[in-house]
Design brief:
The chain is 78% helix and 11% strand. The chain is mostly helical. The protein folds into 2 domains: 1-61; 63-94, no CATH class. The protein has a two-stranded antiparallel ribbon. A hairpin with a 2-residue loop joins β1 and β2 (74-78). It is rod-shaped and about 115 Å long.
Length: 94
């Protein structure tokens, strides 16, 4: 009888430990998937921001005006090559 009781306690303890381990693994997997999902959304937002910035630069450059681009303490003025070619052609005709 005592042997059966000890065996039942051991089985119960092992079952509880197994359930705890399974729950821990499930929570870790869920958290990892949520983190991956958030990272993916963040990366998509960054990509959309980059695309929007480049689009704005292209639209401003198409007006044949210099477009100032600032990064930290450096500024670069950009102008579309087509505008320079137009200016050269007009200067050559005039």
């Amino acid at each position: 009888m005592k042997q059966d009781k000890k065996m039942a306690i051991i089985v119960i303890v092992l079952a509880v430990l197994l359930a705890g381990a399974i729950a821990y693994i499930a929570v870790e997997k869920y958290n990892a998937s949520q983190t991956q999902k958030q990272l993916s959304i963040f990366q998509q937002g960054m990509q959309a921001g980059y695309e929007q910035a480049v689009l704005q630069i292209m639209q401003q450059a198409a007006t044949c005006q210099a477009v100032p681009i600032r990064v930290q303490n450096t500024t670069l003025n950009m102008i579309a090559v087509e505008c320079l070619q137009q200016m050269q052609a007009q200067a050559g005709q005039g």
